[in-house]
């Protein structure tokens, strides 16, 4: 006989128990047996059955996955999940339980309630005799504890008392004496006790406290920086990024954890994520310091440094280091660098094309679809998949990639962590923590685990890197004194006076090549650039920030444009939608309560921001009454997203919900655009965008608060009414 299997799944509805709700799925397996010589066995006489006659047998099994439950039921389910065929439950629980319980509470339930045979009410155990009960329960608990220590050993790092670890050790001594588990816990306790209390101990940092005696922070020396080879710089940045990313504790990224970081009592919350952000901002500021730090540089010399950083970014791309790659791109798009018109004109065309291709990786189109797909594509690949539309760049890329392959060592992938932080914060905001009956919504945790699993996969891939630290570069990197926003802007003005900065802002800022190309077109500029430097934002955001805010910056840095120039786009007379002027207004996620720029029309943001990216053009204030050019042909309607657009209702805070204005939005609209149109509709000053926040009403006691530069179309909850409130910031 030969066999083949075909599996189908069928929704089996829900099962409700005391304190728990389960989703039931029926798994139907069809087994086909091809009978050649088994005719008699099948009931046939002689050769009555054809040689390829098949016998179909069906086997149906039930899969129960807990949907919601009390903490006690969720912990009990750790012991029964395998019996219910919910094989991923333990991993999901361990990765997300910190959002609704403490390690101590879970451990006490697991060991005291279910680990005590005399008081255990575990249903599966009650039907067994005493000896079998002890063996089954011991195996189940050992399996859960082993998974806990394997996947989340940091949960037990509670200096100086280590209460949970000592409780676990006491349980093992009494119930599993001299076991491998007991030895493992003892070793873990010794390891924790021998390490420093600070969770960030040993992390790469750029603070002055890391400098050896006698060293001081210094402004970058361009000659010393130029002495480092491009691939060496990229490798060292990758080395530092890998060390930090591998140490990220996944639950630190959960929206319910990370969104609490700006409260005063949480200044030490999520240290592993903060360390990654600090490194990201350090790379960005290092780029700016090397370009502007030396006043004596000539235009051509400064252009060479920009070219060098683009080459370094390309090397980061080859190394699949998307964190430093994005940091460099962000720095080159910052105010003080972007405005260097003459300097950019001296950058070679080939390198500008390379820069354009690197920038396109982080295009915000379709919720950063390009970077997301590329990240997942390369997550487990041995080497980078490089494509270039420019032949010369393609040759260089393939040559460098071949050198990497010749070394015979696989590469990992370092992601831009802000993407995952944004996803998790939006999930936390959109989904309820508890459902009817006060049960913990575990479906929410399953959704969060989908993101956490990606982080873990990328962390595992980082073990493939084989990089050796170069202490000369690392010490140089740590010695750099980072320029403040005002300092960098002042130096930029000194390098190229205001009179020379009438650079034409294009209607779309997807690439620097498009910006630079306008320098050679001789297009007239219709309004003068604004040259006031922006105020710097307070470190760490406002203490009064909403816990649902999605900004992830621990160190605020300007990512907006001060040269906000309006130009007339090239369009045909027949296209009335394009007659309005286009305003290039770089926006980014910002903390509520942070200072906004005055007199520049710019928005505040951070270099490391999950919601920020390469910006698309928006209709200017004079054109707010007309329909945006991105409106699809299909007529949009209220309460349904269709064809990339929809209609939302926006009411003012304090007024009755029936007093609303209908606003048309598309999949290209961001918070500043929608807020501005809503203000105009309500006969308010449209320039006061920074003073308002836009929230979606989810229920009577639940709101969805959008990040400063979020895409409203993709960020909104499409399963509830499209009702929004425009509220003045506190």
From TrEMBL:
<dbReference type="InterPro" id="IPR008937">
    <property type="entry name" value="Ras-like_GEF"/>
</dbReference>
<dbReference type="InterPro" id="IPR029071">
    <property type="entry name" value="Ubiquitin-like_domsf"/>
</dbReference>
<dbReference type="InterPro" id="IPR000159">
    <property type="entry name" value="RA_dom"/>
</dbReference>
<protein>
    <submittedName>
        <fullName>RGL1 protein</fullName>
    </submittedName>
</protein>
<dbReference type="GO" id="GO:0005886">
    <property type="term" value="C:plasma membrane"/>
</dbReference>
<feature type="domain" description="Ras-associating">
    <location>
        <begin position="644"/>
        <end position="730"/>
    </location>
</feature>
<dbReference type="InterPro" id="IPR001895">
    <property type="entry name" value="RASGEF_cat_dom"/>
</dbReference>
<feature type="domain" description="N-terminal Ras-GEF">
    <location>
        <begin position="62"/>
        <end position="193"/>
    </location>
</feature>
<dbReference type="Pfam" id="PF00617">
    <property type="entry name" value="RasGEF"/>
</dbReference>
<feature type="compositionally biased region" description="Polar residues">
    <location>
        <begin position="544"/>
        <end position="557"/>
    </location>
</feature>
<feature type="region of interest" description="Disordered">
    <location>
        <begin position="529"/>
        <end position="614"/>
    </location>
</feature>
<dbReference type="InterPro" id="IPR036964">
    <property type="entry name" value="RASGEF_cat_dom_sf"/>
</dbReference>
<keyword id="KW-0344">Guanine-nucleotide releasing factor</keyword>
<dbReference type="GO" id="GO:0005085">
    <property type="term" value="F:guanyl-nucleotide exchange factor activity"/>
</dbReference>
<dbReference type="InterPro" id="IPR019804">
    <property type="entry name" value="Ras_G-nucl-exch_fac_CS"/>
</dbReference>
<dbReference type="InterPro" id="IPR023578">
    <property type="entry name" value="Ras_GEF_dom_sf"/>
</dbReference>
<dbReference type="Pfam" id="PF00788">
    <property type="entry name" value="RA"/>
</dbReference>
<feature type="domain" description="Ras-GEF">
    <location>
        <begin position="229"/>
        <end position="498"/>
    </location>
</feature>
<dbReference type="InterPro" id="IPR000651">
    <property type="entry name" value="Ras-like_Gua-exchang_fac_N"/>
</dbReference>
<dbReference type="GO" id="GO:0007265">
    <property type="term" value="P:Ras protein signal transduction"/>
</dbReference>
<dbReference type="Pfam" id="PF00618">
    <property type="entry name" value="RasGEF_N"/>
</dbReference>
<feature type="compositionally biased region" description="Low complexity">
    <location>
        <begin position="583"/>
        <end position="606"/>
    </location>
</feature>
